[in-house]
Amino acid sequence: MTVKRSPTPIKEYVTPFLDYCEIEKGLSNNTQRNYQQYLNLFIKWLVVSDQPNLKPHELTADHIWEYRLFIARTYKTPRGELLSKKSQNYYLIALRALLSFLAERDIETLPSSKIKLAKQKSDETIAFLDVRDIAAMLAVPDTNTPKGLRDRTIMELFFSSGMRISELTALNQDQLTMLKDNATNRTYELSIVGKGKHIRTIFISPRAAEWIRIYLKKRHDVDKALFTSLVNNGSDGKRLTPRSIQMMIQRSAMLAGVSKKVTPHTLRHTYATDLLDHGADLRSVQELLGHKNVATTQIYTHVTNKRLRDVHEKFHGGSDLNNK
Fold first, then answer.
1. What residue numbers bound the domain in which 78 lies?
2. For 169-202, what is each residue's pLDDT tens digit?
3. pTM for the structure as a whole
4. Annotated catalytic residue, options 195, 200, 269, 271
5. Which CATH number does the domain housing residue 34 bear?
6. How far apart are CA 150 and CA 257, in angstroms?
């Protein structure tokens, strides 16, 4: 194996890298778009720093440090906000993936291990809701209207299944026809295409299934998508976008009096936390969330630390030894 120095600038490798993500890695379209967005900022930084044609072997640790300063202190989102530590890491992870891609092709470049991620505070890692907050949000939509019924069904399905927003928006009506005329008090299984185009199973509680059943019976169109945007309370055939759902959930949280910022992923976090709080083991939660590695699921364990401490204080006899 011979490592070679490439005369091609780093910016020219972004498109081949995205092709690799699709064909060899099987990453979702959403992940590919995110990688493109994150890497475009690095290319923009190269231009701003007057080195647009920097080649892979010319990239140094000093370049990475200067780029990290740029995304931490200078770059602002379209809303005029600086990036959080978590968001900064997304940009760094994309760059690491690009360098790993180059290394796999025996192109000399900075090792991806030289890019260190920003340390995150534990309270930045996960946000979740109390079940009372969930109940308040579910009560917000007016289910006597098509839009309200749709929105209630979306939130019920989110909390019941722990789906990712990309998985939910991809659902089609025909995947859930078994619920339409099948009212039973049991949990349903549904196979979906998850992250990385992997098939995984989600579970739908009897309550969420009932809302889906009511929603489907009110649908009189032949649109493919399970959740569509509405015009004059009728489907316009356009699949509901992740952004539309994000805005709906934020609005429902605000009207429910929830003070913290709520996103679709917050509902996924709440789903996982609720499982752990009720005694589910980490491996099972990993499977239910569709995480490839249990290390990803471990971000939830600190949420249950207080509960475990309370159990220890209540049931452990060590505190009584001084009285014996």
1. 10-120
2. 999 999 988 887 766 678 888 988 877 778 888 9
3. 0.63
4. 195
5. 1.10.150.130
6. 21
Query: Among 85, 114, 213, 265, which one carries the catalytic annotation?
Result: 265
CA angle, corner 270, sides to 92 and 173, nearest 5? Answer: 90
Nearest CA to 95 out of 26, 23, 30, 44 is that of 44
Give bridge partners of residue 202 from the DSSP assignment: 190
Q: Residue 253 falls within a domain, yes or no?
A: yes
Q: Residues with Cβ < 8 Å from 232, sequence gap 6 or more?
A: none
What confidence tens digit (pLDDT) does each residue in 234-279 have?
Answer: 778 799 999 999 999 999 999 999 988 899 988 988 888 888 877 7
Q: Do 269 and 167 lie in a common domain?
A: yes
The token duo for 200 is: 């995984």
Q: Which is the catalytic residue, given 55, 152, 164, 200? A: 164
324 noted as active-site residue: no
Verify whether residue 265 is a known catalytic residue: yes
Q: Is 269 among the residues known to form the active site?
A: no
Asked if residue 182 and residue 93 are part of one domain, the reply reads: no
Q: Would you call 55 a catalytic residue per the annotation?
A: no
Q: Is residue 314 part of a domain?
A: no
Digit-coded pLDDT (tens) for 138-153: 999 999 999 999 999 9
Assess whether 140 and 280 both reside in one domain: yes
Q: Do 114 and 138 fall into the same domain?
A: no
**Same-domain check for residues 147 and 208:** yes
Which residue is catalytic, options 55, 68, 269, 291? 291
Domain count, the chain: 2
195 belongs to the catalytic site: yes
Q: Which of 13, 38, 91, 300 is catalytic?
A: 300
In the predicted structure, residue 134 carries a pLDDT above the cut 80: yes
Count CB atoms within 10 A of the CB of residue 314: 7
Q: Is residue 5 part of a domain?
A: no
239 catalytic? Reply is no
* 321 domain-assigned: no
Per the residue annotation, which of 55, 63, 96, 268 is the catalytic one?
Answer: 268
